[in-house]
Amino acid sequence: MPKITLNDLLGIRPEDYPNTRIRFNQYNGTYDPRDLYLQNPDIVNVRWFLWRSQKRYYRVGQVAICLLKLSYDTWLLTTIKRITKDLDVIEGINYEGEELEEYRKYFGRVILKYHKTSKDQCQCRKYGSICDDLEVLEVLPALFDGDEFPGYDRVRLSYTQLQSIIERQKKSWIAALENQKAVYLITDKHTGKLYVGSATSDNGMLLARWTSYANNGHGGNVELKDLVSEKGFDYIKENFQYSILENYNARVDDHVILERESWWKETLQSRVFGYNSN
Questions:
Q1: Most distant CA pair in the chain, distance
Q2: 108: left (phi over 0), alpha (psi -120 to 50) or beta
Q3: DSSP 147
Q4: How many other C-beta atoms lie within 10 A of the C-beta of residue 132?
Q5: Do 75 and 33 form a contact (C-beta atoms < 8 A)?
Q6: Residue pair 5/134 in contact by the 8 Å Cβ criterion
Q7: Residues forming a β-bridge with 212
Q8: pLDDT digits (tens, 9 = 90+) for 182-202
Q9: E-strand spans in 143-229?
Q10: Count of alpha carbons within 13 Å of 69, Cβ hemisphere only?
């Protein structure tokens, strides 16, 4: 069966290919645009998309297509704009653009497959050179709002992802976490230090525990409170990762979870080298 390409949806004429550019936004070593898009689409559609370093990506009058990376070779179409102004700014937002209304129904809904090779490192490409390779995998029925719950053994969230789940009340995640007891792991990706915690009926189950981390970064834990006081909440937002070591249903006695929490603290040495103080 022949594949459906992005241009099958957009209908850009071949004579307009030279005046059309496509920009790939992906993890830059510090931030993942997927997380930022879920937090606020304009962070990607304006700050990332219209940013200029040394090289100019667009000319006034060109049509620019914005993609962000979802996984190894899948991308989300987030906006299409016609460039209206070049501000002559380096290392900042250099362009102004008007969103093209005729394509709005596709923004945040079209998922594409495109494989960037090791030789294909350019962030911005000529549309005509790759349009036949931009395969449509799915048109979502609603705006992309992140992945569904992947299973307890595959949970690994950045702070931004966790915050987005809590703020947007993502149904599959809320249903999976709200009545679940667990032993969980928080990793400081900057230092490698670990914190092992538990969610029991006494502290509101896993959803309540993780909601407290999303709200203040420390969840009431002594050493994490000290870290927030010393380095600020932004340090947590930039560096913390949340995962599940073991999960249990609500009928399991709390003392079982607490014993497993202690076992994991000893195994990972998080009292000696991490953020656990007891």
A1: 70
A2: left
A3: P
A4: 11
A5: no
A6: yes
A7: none
A8: 999 999 999 999 999 999 998
A9: 156-158, 181-188, 194-199
A10: 14
pTM of this prediction exceeds 0.85: no
| H-only helix segments in 90-151 | 127-130
Q: pLDDT-based confidence at 250, cuts 50/70/90?
A: very high
Q: What is the amino acid identity at position 253?
A: D
83: nearest Cα among 41, 50, 130: 50
Burial of 167 (0-12, 13-18, 19+ CB in 10 A): exposed
Structure tokens at 44: 């990607």
Q: Among 245, 246, 152, 230, which Cα is nearest to 191's?
A: 230
Residue 206 phi, psi (nearest 5):
-65, -40
C-beta neighbour count of 32 within 10 angstroms: 19
Exposure string over 226-264, b if 16+ CB within 10 A, otherwise e: ebbeeeeeebbbbbbebebbbbbeeeeeeeebeebbbeb
What's the DSSP call for residue 3?
P
CB 175 within 8 Å of CB 54:
no
Per the rule left: phi > 0, alpha: psi between -120 and 50, beta: everything else, 187 is: beta
Q: Pull the structure tokens for residue 56.
A: 């100019």
pLDDT class for 83, splitting at 50, 70, 90? very high
